[in-house]
Amino acid sequence: MHFAFDDDQLAFRAQFRALTDKTCTAADIREAWTSERGWSPARWAALAEMGVVGLTVPEQDGGLGLGLVDLVLLLEEAGRAGLPEPLLETTALGVPALVAASGGRADELRAQWLPTIAAGDAVMAVGIDDTGLVDGAGAAHLLLLAHHGELHAVPAQNTVTTRRGALDGARRPAHVTWEPSPATVLVAAEDGAGALGALRDRAALATGAVLVGVADRLITMTAAYAQQRVQFGVPIGSFQAVKHHLADALIRLEFARPAVYRAAWSLDEGDPDAGLHSSMAKALAAEAATEAARTALQVHGAIGYTWECDIHLWMKKAWALAAAGGDAGFHRARVLATLLPGDGRP
Fold first, then answer.
1. Is 155 exposed, middle or buried (0-12, 13-18, 19+ CB in 10 A)?
2. What is the per-residue pLDDT across 256-271, written as a single tens digit (0 to 9) for each?
3. DSSP symbols for 134-177
């Protein structure tokens, strides 16, 4: 068996990185964070033209018809770049849930929305629980919302959103008020548990992939700073304690990355243990990113706390995403409950 990405997948990642290196600098992220949406429509259009946005949209609907194994490297790159656009919500979560739905108005909704999404003219937001708090709801055109074990597809004009505060300036969570009806049902209650469970697994894996990229960028930025910052006449990167902190963060990252890739493959292949692998990926990636953030903050010293220092853009993303959809402790407990059922743990 071949345990590696193919040349096309690696080339797509290289093209994605070239685009984000040019259009998603720290200055671009800062500008997006202070904008109305939290992200750039022009950058989203460029991603759509490249095929990134429609990667999971079926070919007959204008997309590439690819899976998570093809997307996971791009999600990792999105984290590395600090990309503020809703790639995770739209391409990794919303589109596959819409594609997988059957019955009811699913065919009609796919015909209406998938070509528009692939073209970059619409974005999605996904609420997997009944709290009503949904990331990116204010700028979304179509929302997938859980309600009493069902999954509903609700156009933005049929919702009222109240923005909430966020640590990561791109996430823009909002409380969504809406009226469920038979016309909005995408997945009925009898199939809702499976659909919502699959969404949660995909969210854990996709968030883990972004966190791996965030951790990678934090370590890279911090190592570069340690080579430039001089104390006692030498770069601080020459101090053993600094080397150890960076090495520890890198070890966590290198353990998390293959777990994320494995979870992507498991979900694509319908592996019965895909949920287990997704939780393992999220737990390891969350710990890697928070360790990288802690190390970055410590090595940068007092300036690490300041708005002027770019690392806060990635640290805040690490902290926010590490808690999203359950933190490392939650997913470790889920892994334990899967491996040792009936021990009384959640």
1. middle
2. 999 999 999 999 999 9
3. EETGGG-SEEEEEETTEEEEEEGGGEEEEE---SSTTT-EEEEE
